[in-house]
């Protein structure tokens, strides 16, 4: 091996051992597993999976980690929680409840909070994680909606996500109801009222669910089974399907140089995302634990045990049910009437029973509606910037405003005492905003999007206004524009703008009336609603034209710049070769002669 | 025995027995009969009543009328009792600072306790009404657990489970009870100021009221078991916290990780 080449000096410290090729003890174990399960193929597929980097892609991760935290802490809580409405007397260590009659469920929850070591911390982690779970689900959904990530091929995953959101809400409500404290008892009482408001069959439904009259002894054990067995199983199952579909579809990415519908630009799961995602799990767990250690949530020992004679001011559900509670607070009482000796309570029925299915149906239909309107049958792996789909963004904002008006209405009593306002006035303001807010939000958002698109066009065509004024030898004034480079320009021009469709002839070649003429008419109307005042992306031809519009003075400007550079060195005007706008007489810097 | 028996037909015997019986009955009545509530009237001397009347004429009469019989702007005070005066003036609600849906509590009452006592004595002299409660019922020391139960049944629907307050219709509200003295809580229950119903001694016995006051004292003094209590207003501040600080920290971490080069 030894020669006298100079390069040998560099290599003299190299390790000469042959690689063993079996990966050591870890490799041996992996090999053992692979030979028995064939897992290597799948693991390699997963480990090589490439994910793009963006903070908004991690909102779903927060939800995923919160779910894991919920499963872990929930298991801990079941070790001590007694799901029973059996009457008992408290004799534990919390003096303010000593000797008070209560249910086993409440007593065991007080015990978890006061006597089980670390019990209160785990309870609070469980509850805070539940709130953050729903917050992150909603933000994740908003990201998916506003970037158009629900488009083909991800419609099924959008629906699964919606189901997960709804089940998580029900799961949260079931958990909120279990401790049988004053607040959760009031919640169950309200839920019974919701069931009773269903026309005709309401009383039967309530009787079936409660096993008789309210409160009965059945509801807590039943909710417990639903909360720890049925819903978690469905949620984990749907969540697995959700994640598998992400793997199948590949992750979407924001538009940018080198990113297409056929690739994913990012890093592989192993090792980069394993580290990042693993680290993020511990951040989420750590932050949740920190909050739970510092801030009380649901102090059931303060609420006290529930009795049907009791209620507290400020009885609200957890935030994710707030919008339905708010709807109930806004619906006017005169929607209750008696017909054929039956009482119909539509002021409750609409908000408590109809609202959620209606809203979720609307959200579930949207991807299909948009596809029908655009006629777009392409696969989309590149995300839309929200401004490039102004109508969709407007509809989304209208929906959110509707949701949040109802949501804030659920806190009308606390607003009244904190802001020293009349609860009646607040309620009326929210009633009006329920209808006015979404319309305003749609209009404002759409106009903002269109303006942002116009600004993008302007930026692409004319570059950034540098504010630097150039005076040519003959005394004309120009403002130098700094053009975008190709990388900056790409995201601004690489989007699709759908044109409104026109009405196909109502009568076909043979003079026969087309069957779907009415549907077509509807589609045309919607298409105009969506795309009538659209902004087209800049075409290469337009870009070319824009670059030539200062042609007549080009030479003069270049000459001026070069002159300046000669005098002042390279610091000056290094980027002044893109374009320039002659300042008109209206500008403060315009040529005096032109004024 | 024999001496007493020998004189049993004495002409004065009947008289003596009658006097004895009346003394026993009267004594028993004095001990057992329900106390009339105008104790303040009994203790207040006429000097206090006169001073109270002077204060009343100069500070209250413009609304309540010069004889406290009420006017267009204020109700009659005949029969409201000393407790009512002690509560309304002692919490600074009266004299009314500004017209509105509800008299608001002031940080500092307009009168000293001595002046309030004079006013109370004057108003109590107008007609029988509830007196200022004795301190044995207002300083706590009762059964906290019982008090909590009574509070949840009778008070929580307006004042909230921890006495943090709640909204009523058209701008009225049930105020927070956290910084209210036991005496004023007792007087409020006794007199039912503004929108509040009266909880007289038949609804809630003095001992019950004492338990409720003890419960409220405990809520105020009890260490917050689970960390910061967010004002004890229920799930609304919890939701606000989750939507702002909670998710804010997590998104901050996500932005940081997203920017971190791999």
TrEMBL record, chain A:
Protein EC: 7.1.1.8
Name of protein: Cytochrome bc1 complex cytochrome b subunit
Disordered, as annotated region: 1-28, 566-595
Lineage: Bacteria, Bacillati, Actinomycetota, Actinomycetes, Micrococcales
PANTHER family listed in its UniProt record: CYTOCHROME B
Source organism: Metallococcus carri
Membrane-topology descriptor: Multi-pass membrane protein
GO molecular function: metal ion binding; oxidoreductase activity; quinol-cytochrome-c reductase activity
Required cofactor names: heme
Localization terms from the record: Cell membrane
GO cellular component, one term: plasma membrane
Automatic annotation (TrEMBL), chain B:
Enzyme class (EC, first level): translocase
Binding annotation for heme c 1: 60, 63-64
Domain Cytochrome c: 47-220
Membrane topology label: Multi-pass membrane protein
Protein name: Cytochrome bc1 complex cytochrome c subunit
TM segment ranges: 12-32, 240-258
MF annotations from Gene Ontology: heme binding; iron ion binding; quinol-cytochrome-c reductase activity
InterPro entries in the cross-refs: bc1_cytC-su, Cyt_c-like_dom, Cyt_c-like_dom_sf, Cytochrome_c_Oxidase_Subunit
GO cellular component terms, A-Z: plasma membrane
Binding site for heme c 2: 155, 158-159
Oligomeric form and interacting partners: The cytochrome bc1 complex is composed of a cytochrome b (QcrB), the Rieske iron-sulfur protein (QcrA) and a diheme cytochrome c (QcrC) subunit.
Gene3D superfamilies given in the database record: Cytochrome c-like domain
Organism for this UniProt entry: Metallococcus carri
UniProt KW keywords: Cell membrane, Electron transport, Heme, Iron, Membrane, Metal-binding, Repeat, Respiratory chain, Translocase, Transmembrane, Transmembrane helix, Transport
């Amino acid at each position: 091996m030894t020669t006298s080449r100079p390069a040998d000096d560099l290599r003299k410290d190299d390790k000469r051992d042959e690689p063993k090729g079996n990966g050591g003890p870890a490799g041996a174990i992996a090999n053992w597993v692979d030979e028995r399960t064939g897992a290597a193929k799948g693991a390699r597929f997963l480990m090589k999976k490439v994910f793009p980097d963006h903070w908004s892609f991690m909102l779903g991760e927060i939800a995923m980690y919160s779910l894991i935290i919920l499963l872990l802490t929930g298991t801990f809580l079941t070790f001590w929680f007694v799901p029973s409405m059996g009457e008992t007397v408290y004799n534990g260590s919390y003096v303010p409840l000593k000797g008070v009659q209560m249910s086993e469920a409440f007593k065991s929850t007080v015990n978890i909070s006061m006597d089980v070591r670390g019990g209160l911390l785990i309870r609070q982690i469980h509850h805070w994680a539940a709130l953050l779970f729903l917050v992150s689900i909603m933000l994740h959904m908003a990201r998916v909606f506003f970037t158009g990530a629900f488009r083909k091929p991800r419609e099924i995953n959008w629906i699964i996500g919606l189901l997960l959101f709804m089940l998580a809400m029900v799961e949260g409500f079931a958990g909120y109801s279990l401790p049988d404290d004053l607040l959760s008892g009031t919640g169950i009482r309200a839920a019974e009222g919701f069931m009773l408001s269903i026309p005709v069959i309401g009383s039967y439904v309530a009787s079936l669910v409660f096993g008789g009259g309210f409160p009965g002894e059945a509801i807590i054990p039943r909710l417990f089974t639903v909360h720890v067995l049925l819903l978690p199983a469905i949620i984990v199952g749907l969540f697995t399907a959700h994640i598998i579909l992400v793997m199948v579809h590949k992750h979407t990415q924001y538009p940018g140089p080198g990113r297409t519908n056929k690739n994913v630009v990012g890093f592989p799961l192993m090792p980069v995302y394993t580290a990042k995602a693993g680290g993020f799990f511990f951040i989420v767990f750590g932050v949740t634990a920190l909050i739970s250690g510092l801030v009380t949530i649901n102090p059931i020992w303060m609420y006290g045990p529930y009795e049907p004679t009791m209620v507290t001011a400020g009885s609200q559900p957890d935030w994710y049910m707030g919008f339905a509670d708010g709807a109930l607070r806004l619906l006017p009482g005169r929607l209750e009437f008696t017909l054929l000796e039956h009482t119909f309570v539509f002021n409750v029925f609409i908000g408590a029973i109809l609202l959620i299915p209606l809203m979720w149906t609307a959200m579930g239909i949207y991807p299909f509606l948009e596809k029908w309107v655009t006629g777009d049958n392409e696969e989309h792996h590149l995300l839309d910037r929200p401004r490039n789909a102004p109508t969709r963004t407007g509809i989304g904002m209208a929906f959110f405003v509707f949701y949040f008006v109802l949501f804030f209405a659920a806190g009308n009593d606390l607003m009244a005492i904190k802001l020293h306002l009349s609860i009646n006035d607040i309620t009326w303001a929210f009633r009006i905003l329920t209808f006015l807010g979404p319309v305003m939000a749609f209009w404002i958002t759409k106009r903002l999007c269109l303006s942002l698109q116009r600004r993008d066009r302007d930026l692409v065509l004319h570059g950034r206004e540098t504010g630097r004024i150039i005076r040519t030898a003959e005394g004309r004034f120009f403002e130098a524009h700094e053009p975008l480079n190709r990388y900056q320009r790409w995201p601004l021009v690489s989007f699709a703008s759908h044109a409104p469709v026109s009405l196909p002839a109502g009568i076909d070649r043979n003079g026969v009336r087309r069957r779907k003429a009415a549907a077509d008419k509807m589609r045309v109307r919607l298409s105009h609603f969506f795309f009538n005042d659209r902004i087209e992306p800049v075409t290469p031809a337009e870009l070319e034209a824009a670059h030539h519009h200062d042609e007549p003075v080009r030479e003069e400007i270049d000459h001026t710049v070069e002159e300046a550079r000669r005098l002042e060195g390279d610091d000056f005007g290094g980027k002044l070769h893109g374009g320039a706008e002659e300042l008109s007489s209206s500008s403060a810097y315009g040529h005096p002669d032109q004024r | 025995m024999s001496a007493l028996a020998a004189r049993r037909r004495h002409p004065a015997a009947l008289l003596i027995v009658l006097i004895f019986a009346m003394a026993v009955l009267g004594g028993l009545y004095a001990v057992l009969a329900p106390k009339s509530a105008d104790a303040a009237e009994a203790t207040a001397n006429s000097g206090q009543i006169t001073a109270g009347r002077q204060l009343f004429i100069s500070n209250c009469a413009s609304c309540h009328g010069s004889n406290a019989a009420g006017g267009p702007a204020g109700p009659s005070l005949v029969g409201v009792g000393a407790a009512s005066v002690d509560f309304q003036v002692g919490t600074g609600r009266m004299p009314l600072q500004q017209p509105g849906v509800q008299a608001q509590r002031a940080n500092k009452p307009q009168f000293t306790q001595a002046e309030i006592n004079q006013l109370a004595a004057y108003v109590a002299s107008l007609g029988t009404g509830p007196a200022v409660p004795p301190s044995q019922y207002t300083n706590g020391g009762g059964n906290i657990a019982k008090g909590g139960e009574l509070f949840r049944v009778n008070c929580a629907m307006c004042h909230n489970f921890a006495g943090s307050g709640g909204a009523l219709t058209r701008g009225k509200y049930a105020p927070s009870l956290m910084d209210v003295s036991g005496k004023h809580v007792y007087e409020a229950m006794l007199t039912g100021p503004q929108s509040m119903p009266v909880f007289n001694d038949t609804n809630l016995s003095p001992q019950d009221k004492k338990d409720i006051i003890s419960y409220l004292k405990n809520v105020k003094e009890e260490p917050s078991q689970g960390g910061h209590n967010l004002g004890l207003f229920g799930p609304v501040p919890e939701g606000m916290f989750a939507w702002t600080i909670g998710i804010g920290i997590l998104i901050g971490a996500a932005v940081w990780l997203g920017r971190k080069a791999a």
